[in-house]
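User: Can you model how iron/sulfur cluster sits in this protein?
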Amino acid sequence: MKDCNSCGKCCEKYGGDGLSATSEEIGWWLTHRPDIARYVQDDRIWIDPETNDYFARCPWLSRSADGSKFVCDIYAVRPEDCRHYPTNIAEMVRDGCEMLERHDLVDVGRAQRKLDAIMADSRPPVCRRARR
Ligand code: SF4
Ligand code: SF4
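Assistant: Here's the modeled complex, given as structure tokens:
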């Protein structure tokens, strides 16, 4: 199991209509980050205020200065849904997550424990829910 290399696949896949935010997060954005809250409508994220529909792609996903990786423009205050990814090995396989190494698929239990250790600072070991 490698560290995340910021390949951006997860943000590309889920950043359109595949994310959710808690009422606490939305309330915090409304108070402290109206620039983020402007893309929230009826508890849905991320909504284009011009079309009232989901953005086709996360509006906070950018290329790094040298173009070699993707960065999140709101990384420090991104939704929990983003913080918790990836949650399990099956999800990583399905999404082509580049943290995975060949040997992770030989012993999935060991790989999951390694993932949980890597993610310890950003989510509980057993995430409250997996992504759709
Ligand atoms: S908010 Fe940030 S971490 Fe979440 S999908 Fe968008 S770019 Fe990725
Ligand atoms: S798909 Fe995996 S390696 Fe790529 S940015 Fe997401 S977590 Fe990182």
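A couple of observations from the model: The chain has one domain: 9-118. The chain has a mean pLDDT of 93.
User: Helpful, thanks.
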